[in-house]
UniProtKB/TrEMBL annotation:
InterPro entries: Acyl_CoA_acyltransferase (IPR016181), GNAT_dom (IPR000182). Residues 8-151 form the N-acetyltransferase domain. This is Ribosomal-protein-alanine N-acetyltransferase. The keyword Protease does not apply. Pfam families: Acetyltransf_1.
Amino acid sequence: MTYQFDVMTQEQAEHIAYKWHYDGIYSFYDMEADQEDLAEFLDSNKRGYSMFAVTKENDLVGFFSANQVGEDNVDIGFGMRPDLTGRGYGYHFLQTGLEFVIEIYHPKIITLSVATFNQRAIKLYKKLGFKEVQTFMQNTNGGEYEFLKMDYTFGLTENE
């Protein structure tokens, strides 16, 4: 059985926000680590129809956001349930998410941003075809951190 993407419910958002906690340096990704991000994640009006709960056999295994940025670009964000990370599931999870975004939005470019310390994720994104674009500093989680913007470009000819 494959992953299922559905608009996130309030119950799912609260479960992810308060029950999912990552180990070690990855605790950076706990929803409660940044109160502004937490408030936005829990606000159903701000989530709208761009935040999806990802289930497998009716089990909540992740979340995936897709935000249209201009006509041809979709910016994505996502997370897997903490007990599933680092176990080799990321490739299929993200590949399925990319297929979902392509089917729904038909973008020419998909972008994402990742903390530069997360080399495990960066390696996965490169394996899936994402390219490094630029680094930037961002205030989050009570400090300033370096992030890497990456993009996945497809559907363009050499003349475009």
